[in-house]
Amino acid sequence: MAFDSRQRDFGVLKVDGKNVRVYSTNSSSMNIAVGKDIKDARWNGDEVLVYLTDGKIRRYSSLSSYTTI
Predict the structure, then answer these.
(1) What is the pTM (predicted TM-score) of this model?
(2) Does some domain include residue 69?
(3) Which domain holds residue 10?
């Protein structure tokens, strides 16, 4: 399942430990369970780029589907 347009339009991501919270409103969010230490997370069009502290970058196309770039 790809990210919802409400999530993309709201545009807020929050690094929370080893997870990234993807917000669709001020009080509604869903989790990307990364499981590794996170340096940063940013929207890139319809996808979320998660920068890990080990230097790798994961490109998430949904909450559970990613490729390492």
Answers:
(1) 0.94
(2) no
(3) 5-62
